[in-house]
Structures are given as C-alpha cells and as structure tokens.
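[scheduler] slot 2 assigned
[scheduler] job type: sequence-to-structure, two independent chains
[scheduler] chain ordering preserved from manifest
[runner] begin chain α
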Amino acid sequence: MDDTGARAEELFLEVFESLPRQGPGRRACTARALALCAGLPEAPLVLDLGCGAGAQTLHLAELTAGRIVALDLHRPNVARLGATLAARGLERRVLAAWGDMARPPVPPGRCDLVWSEGALYNLGLARALPLVRELLRPGGHVAFTDAVWRVADPPAEVREAFAEYATMGTAADALREIEASGLAPVGHFPVPDEAWWDDFYTPLLRRVGELRAQHAGDAEALAALDAIAAEAEMHRRHASSYGYDFFVARRP
C-alpha cells in the first residue's frame, strides 16, 4: 500500500471506529427480527458474527436474557465493546471475542440464535449460511441483514460502489440461498431508510465534518474524507435502487 492509500485507510478507521455502529440498523429492527424467532429458550445462547462496535449486541443483551458471544476480526472493535460491556456490568453474560467468523469459537449445534447485521457478505451467503446452519441446534434461528438490489438495472455509480460484493442479489436471491443451505425462511423485511440516516450516516457525516476541521489545508486528508462522505450522498440520490433486508430463518 502506498502512502496515499495508507493515509486513506487511517482516516477511514478514524471515522468508523468512532461510530455507534458501522452500518445501517437500529434497535427497532433488531427487536422486530428477534420477534420472528419463535420458540427461543428463556436464556438462549446467541452468537453475533461480525459484531463491529456492538450496537446490536447491546440491543440483544437488553432484549434477551441469554448469553451472547460477540465476534469480530477488528481488534479495536472488540476492545471498545469489551469496555462498554464492563461499564454496563454485562461482561459476565456477554463476551466480546476476537476471531474470524469463518471459524467461530462455538461448537457445532450449540447456538440457539446466530445474529449478523451487515457482515455475512464478507463470506458471501453461499458460504456463510451452511456454516451458520451447522452452528445452530435443531430449531435454532439465524437473523441477518444483507445488501440487496431493489431494481433490475441499478445506476453504474451504485454498481461500482458494491463491486466488492460480487454475489449481491435481490431479496428473492437471498431467500433461495437460505433454502439451498438447508434452512427454512421465516420472514424478511426491509431495513427502513431512517436506520441508514439517523443511525449511520448522520453520525458518520458529523465525524467527517470534525475531521475536515482538524485537517483543514491538508488536501490529501480532505480528499480521503470526501470519498467517505460520498457514500452517504450516493445513498441520498439512489436509495430506491438498493438497500438492506433483514432475513430470519430456522434450522428444521
């Protein structure tokens, strides 16, 4: 990586590590998806894959009485969540763990609920969902959000932005992947635009503004910050062409 790329990555992390969450979502969506997971034990074992800073992990801790393992590969996220759990007195019930979601530290067939908001794309659904199925006990549930196309021919700008997610499809495509993995779809719903703006982009743009003020006169830093803010502006223009859906499925 050259100096320009390293600087851009440094600023990217400086923005995202400070945010309350690293992608679209909100407590109401977590609660709605959890309500679709009928028959959970009173104190379920929950695995939160790709937990980020743990906004949804904390919501799950409020909404359930279970034990939660929150897994992330980015050590600063794990450290930040661990500190939050300690401050809230949750560290005996919720574990912030460093690790790869492809090799989670939970034995097969033990989880009552596997959760993942905006993270399974790192593996792709075709790889991630069979792995999740093996983690679940019979009758256990998985709930996850995933980016989906809302139109057949998205604008080129949006296609380019999602180029790293080569297998991104429609909600119907995701449902087919769920069934192909041996899971039974329970329900799905779109993550509302408020969860993009109020919970994600508003804090992001606020932090970008703070850093622009700190780096005034530094053209390289300002260009990197402009690139980060461009995602929000793209969403403002083209939100009707893509979005996140929340999917809930069950291991038969």
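[runner] end chain α
[runner] begin chain β
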Amino acid sequence: MAPRKTRSTTSVTLTNLERLGAARLAALLMEQGKRDRAFRERLALAIAAEAGAEELAEQIERRLISLSHLSRRSRLGEARAREVLGEVQALRDVIANDVAPALPGRAIDLLRRFIAMGPTILDLIGDSEALAAVFDRAEADLSGLWAGHATRDIAEVVEWVIGRIEQEQERAIDLRPYERALGEGGLRLLADRIGAAFGALPREAVGQRWAHTIGRHYDSRVRAMVLRQILRQIADALGDVDALIAVESEFHPTEIDAPAIAQRLLAAGRAEDALSWLDNPRFERVTRNATGLRLEVLEALGRRDDAQALRLMTFERTLDVPLLRDYLKRLPDFTDAEAEKRIVARATEHRSAGEALAFLTTWPALDSAAALVDSRLAELKPVPPDALLDAATRLRESHPAQAVTLIRAAAPTILDSGFAHHYAALARAMVEVRDLPPAAEGQTHDGWVDELRMRFPRRDAFWSRYRELDRPAPT
C-alpha cells in the first residue's frame, strides 16, 4: 500500500508551487487570467516590470487611460467595482514602489494622471473609504516625489494644486500633502492666486450671514467658503496669523471662529491680541464657552489671580470637577481645605439640583449629597432616572436611606415611560437595597414593591427581570 500523502505535501505553499514547474504554473495563471480581469492586469504589470521601468510605465499609462474612459452613465456592479478597486490599488503601489525609484519624473506624470481620474472612479464605485484612501496616498506620493525632485518647477506645482482646488468645487482639498512640495515660496504664490479669486467674489456673498445669501449668491457663497478653508490652511502652514485674520474678517461676525484665531495668536506668542479677540463683544456667542482657552491666555499673561477668579466663577456655573481641582491646587498651602468646604457648601445651592447631586457624589462629598436628597427631593424627581440610580449606588454604603429614596424616585419614571433600557439597572438597584432601612416612617421594601406592581402591572419585562434577581435560582 502506497504511503498516504501528508497535508504538507498537498497544501498551497511556495515550495509546493515551485515543484509544479514554470510551464504548469504559467498554464494555471493563463486560465485564471481568462476568468479574472483584475488578475490578468496584474499579470500584465508583472510582465512589463520584467522588461524594465520604461515598459512598466508605458503599461501603467495604458491602463490609466483605459480606466479614465469608463462610462459615467451608471455605477459599476459589485463584482466589477471590486475589480476596479483592486486594480487602482495595484497601480498606485506599482507607480510608487517600482517606477518612482527608477524614473521619478515619469512617476510624477503617472501619479498626476492617476489622481486626475479619481473623481471618475469614485463616481462609478460610490462612497468607498478604501478607494478614497488610495487616492489620498497617491497625493502624498506625488508631493513627496516633487519635494525631492531637484528640478521641480514651483509654478507647475502651484498650477497643479490650483487645478485640484478647482476640481473640487464644493469642498476644500487637504493641502497638507502638498506643503513639502510647495515650500514657503509656493505657498505664498498659491495664497496670492487663491486670494485674488476670493477677492473677486461678490462681497454680498461673503460679508452677509449665510441665511441671507440663499438665492442668486448661493454658488458664490459656497465658493467663498471653500476658498476660505484653503486660505486658512495656507496661513496655518506659513504660521501667518495676520493673513488668517484678514480672510476671516471678510465674513459676518457671527460666522467668524474667534476662538480659533485666539488659539493661533496665543501659539504665536501674542497673548494680548488673543485676549482682545476673546473679549470682543461681537464674538460673545462663540467665545462664551472658551473657558479653557481664556485660562491659557490669562496664564500666559501672568494674570494668575484673574485666571483663578475665572475658574471659580465658571465652576460655580458648571460644577465642572476638573476645573475645581485645578482651582484648588493653585491655592496657597493650607488654604485649599477650607476653600473646598466653602465651595462644596455653595454647590448644594446650585440652580440645578440634579447637577449638584452629580457633582457631590462624584467629588465626593457624600454627607452634602445626602443632605441635598433630603432637602431638594422634589427638584430631583424630574432628573433623568439613570443619574438618580448612579447617585444611589454611590450613596448606598454611607447613606442607605437616601439611596433608597433616590431609587424610589427613579422607579416610577422608568416604569411609567417604559424605559426598557433602564430595566436591568433598576431591578439590580432595587434588589441591592432590599434589606436596607428606608427613610424614617417610610414604607417597607416589600410594601413599596407591591404598590409598584399595582401601579405598573403590565411591565412584564421588568417584573420578570426583577424576579430573576430578587430570588436567584438555586445552583
């Protein structure tokens, strides 16, 4: 009896394929190529590569021309779309990895042709993140080749980037891949060209509020927003805050991103200018909540007392825990404990009982939280039930009566509204406090549960879950 062949001798491995020999492998590849167009094109590229970089570049150019001529009349079917995606990925890889090292100038030309056909291919295949990523990598490849090309013409790079900007009529392209290729001189040339186009737009389409431009100025307004984003990118690349301010100042005050300008001014070491933008009453709507940035500016100016006053004022409005910690650690030694007591006491009187409870249980100041439950229970009942259950969990060990009170406040809201996503948490909370004493003269746990059953008899999903947790099945 002949010995049985092992899996290692029959599996598809490099060694076993080599045993087949060139003729047999070539026949199999031809057979597969007849069935799979994308595979056939990969074979053509591999054969061209063997003939040299020039022949490979010629083959790639033929394929790019063929792909760019695909009909735009309808999207491709799923199978054909996969083929095209695979071929596009392969072409980009071959240009970047095989042609570019030997023929960088030719690779630049091929990448430009490759990127130019992007809109056609994206239209045919539809919204594909994988495909968009291939073209993004191609733009980075092109910029890298241009940046390292000793004889590159900066004006040519600028014209190419302008063409890309014009190709995308309703969105701003990402200039970051081209910053190296453009260099400072190219970026300034580009700024002049885009600035001229921006300046030629009707002022009615730029300076008015967006809602007032709907109609005859709509297209111009869309273009203004695209060019604005391009000019903003150029200004950031050059570190030219004044250029950014010049562009932004063309727009209506309600549409100017004052915090973004202030952030850039601060980074440029112009803290006084940054503060003037944050303090400008025209931008009050967008700077109102820029507390973190305002604090950075005040610290940069050495106005630490003003920064502390802002931290305390903002905390008293928002009850933001990190902000209070930041405030307390900046106080002189041995004064922080007394300040903490005073601030926590004021927090119990916050306009929102729910926000106060969340702060006090998180800080934690559980004695104050329990006192809040006793004194402001009516205000807590409308608070979202998940917040009440969370606070009850934090209070259960040290203040059980108040924990029971919060759970009993949350339960009717959950059951009356049918908030099924809260059923498991409520059932678990009810079981966990089953043996805890209620508030003075309050109902027993079983009496309260019976009353809930009578009020909400149809919440079968909840009561089933509660029974499972209340009396677990014996193991």
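[runner] end chain β
[qc] chain β: The CA atoms of residues 199 and 224 lie 9 Å apart.
[scheduler] slot 2 released
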